[in-house]
């Protein structure tokens, strides 16, 4: 039984809506009907060539106009951009892997590659070197759906339409925020590791192979800005010792902001934040809202260390209940972090934490 079938049988989605989703091979656009200019109901789905096309539907009546869907989608995208700082950085750096029709897949199979023996040196080249080949090790990454529901009654929609005002997007925005927060926390490692099908989803701070560095709290006696700089340099050394040479992004807990923006010393003329940015290999410094205490993460921004797996971007589905008097909506996405290492457990993620 695949994830889609479990999702349907659990009662989260049932009846005609489930049948339509199965008929569309998991394409969520089939649950986004809209009213066209001619008053007929349409959906926009991907054809066999992967291109979007608009199709009329006869067995399903649309409730929202196309402009209503745009209002909902705009509100949802706006909120998701506010909270997905870590995920946004990874996407902006191109550290993503897209799975077509992600609703129809429950896990992503991955491999780690081992090394081969060293080359030898000889004068005539006749000496035989060790004949070997790299070993491959299979791993699994779960692809869960992250989702949140909300509803409108028919009367709410009619009142909005008759009054000439757009539908209220407050609930949609709050629901989108919860989905966005869940994705961000999963990538950061604040939420519990998700386990399914023999695989586990980890984030930066709960990754079992993460490298560590003991930090000094800025409230400790004798702490100075130079103390943190020295410890950041030690984190870089730790990463290099694991054969990860940058470039790195530094992520700080919000509690560091007050110290990062103070002068590095009385004569430097720069803040501690500016001084750390001058360290070779450091791309930038970011504050992540959900990082805790005085945690700091040094992340090598390459796809062999961390990337986001995208099975479905944030989207909104709709179906009817209560005789059509209630219009149900589900904001959902399949976006999960993939943290990566080689067979020697070498990785490019260093977690600095106060002891």
Sequence-ordered SSE layout with sheet pairings:
Layout: H1 3-9, H2 16-23, E1 34-35, E2 41-46, E3 52-56, H3 66-83, H4 85-92, E4 96-98, E5 107-113, E6 136-142, E7 146-153, H5 154-163, H6 170-188, E8 194-196, E9 199-201, E10 211-215, H7 225-241, E11 248-252, H8 257-260, H9 272-277, E12 282-287, E13 296-300, E14 306-321, E15 326-339, E16 349-354
Parallel strand pairs: 4-14, 10-16, 11-12
Antiparallel strand pairs: 1-2, 2-3, 5-6, 7-15, 8-9, 11-13, 13-16, 14-15
Helix pairs in contact: 3-6
Task: Label this structure with key terms.
355 residues; alpha+beta; hypothetical protein PF0899 fold; five-stranded mixed beta sheet; four-stranded mixed beta sheet; 16 strands; 27% helix; globular; disordered N terminus
**CATH superfamily (homologous) name of the domain at 211-305 and 344-354:** hypothetical protein PF0899 domain
What's the overall geometry? globular
Query: What is the mean predicted local confidence, pLDDT?
Result: 81
CATH topology of the domain at 211-305 and 344-354: hypothetical protein PF0899 fold
In short:
With 355 residues, the chain is α+β, with helices and mostly antiparallel strands. Among the domains are: 1-62, no CATH class; 211-305 and 344-354, 2-Layer Sandwich (hypothetical protein PF0899 fold). The chain contains nine helices and 16 strands.
């Amino acid at each position: 039984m695949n994830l889609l079938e479990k999702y349907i049988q659990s009662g989260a989605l049932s009846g005609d809506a489930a049948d339509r989703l199965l008929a569309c091979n998991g394409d969520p656009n089939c649950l986004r009907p809209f009213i066209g200019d001619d008053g007929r109901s349409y959906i926009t789905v991907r054809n066999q060539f992967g291109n979007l096309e608009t199709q009329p539907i006869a067995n399903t009546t649309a409730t929202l106009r196309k402009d209503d869907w745009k209002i909902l989608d705009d509100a949802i995208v706006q909120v998701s951009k506010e909270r997905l700082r870590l995920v946004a950085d990874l996407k902006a750096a191109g550290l993503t892997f897209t799975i077509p029709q992600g609703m129809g897949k429950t896990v992503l199979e991955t491999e780690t590659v081992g090394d081969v023996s060293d080359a030898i040196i000889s004068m005539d080249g006749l000496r035989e070197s060790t004949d070997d080949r790299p070993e491959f090790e299979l791993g699994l990454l779960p692809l869960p759906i992250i989702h949140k529901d909300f509803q409108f009654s028919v009367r709410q929609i009619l009142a909005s339409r008759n009054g000439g005002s757009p539908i209220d997007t407050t609930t949609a925005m709050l629901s989108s925020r919860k989905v966005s927060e869940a994705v961000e926390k999963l990538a950061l490692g604040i939420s519990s590791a998700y386990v399914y099908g023999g695989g586990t989803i980890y984030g930066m701070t709960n990754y079992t192979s993460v490298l560590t560095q003991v930090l000094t709290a800025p409230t400790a006696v004798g702490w100075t800005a130079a103390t943190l700089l020295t410890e950041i340099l030690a984190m870089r050394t730790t990463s290099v010792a694991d054969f990860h040479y940058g470039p790195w992004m530094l992520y700080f807990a919000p509690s560091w902001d007050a110290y990062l923006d103070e002068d590095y010393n009385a004569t430097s003329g720069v803040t501690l934040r500016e001084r750390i940015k001058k360290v070779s290999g450091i791309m930038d410094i970011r504050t992540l809202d959900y990082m805790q205490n005085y945690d700091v993460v040094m992340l090598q921004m390459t796809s062999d260390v961390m990337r986001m797996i995208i099975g479905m971007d944030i989207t909104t589905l709709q179906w009817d209940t209560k005789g059509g008097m209630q219009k149900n909506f589900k904001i959902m996405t399949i976006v999960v972090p993939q943290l990566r290492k080689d067979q020697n457990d070498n990785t490019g993620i260093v977690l600095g934490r106060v002891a």
